[in-house]
């Protein structure tokens, strides 16, 4: 089984953000929260984008027509939920 492209992109983005964030600011809690949220959001977005067309196809709906806007909305909502969950866990 190969690694998820979203996970790889998330690791790269969160790593770059962590380095730049530590150079620019002193608030490690915020930097960790945003870096973890970036990592999780990238992985979740890829999982949603890969999983959503299957039910559309099973229902006889063209996956390309319905999954794009719906996938984007779901990914955005999950990204916000993930960020606030991680921020709340770190902030205490």
Blueprint (SSEs and pairs):
Layout: H1 5-24, H2 28-51, H3 53-58, H4 63-91
Helix pairs in contact: 1-2, 2-4
* Helix/strand class: mainly alpha
Helix content: over 70%
**Uncertain stretches of 5 or more adjacent residues:** none
Distance between the termini: 36 Å
**Mean pLDDT rating:** 87
Mass-distribution shape = elongated
Summed up, the helix count is 4
What's the count of strands? 0
Write down the secondary-structure element order.
HHHH
Rg from C-alpha positions? 16 Å
Number of domains: 1
Per DSSP, what share of the residues sits in E-state strands of 2 or more residues? under 5%
Q: Sketch the major β-sheet.
A: none
Give a concise summary.
This protein has helices spanning 5-24, 28-51, 53-58, 63-91. It is mostly helical and 92 residues long.
Q: Your description of this structure?
A:
The protein has helices at residues 5-24, 28-51, 53-58, 63-91. The protein is mainly α and 92 residues long. It has one domain (5-91). Helix 2 runs antiparallel to helix 4. The radius of gyration is 16 Å and the shape is elongated. The relative contact order is 0.15.
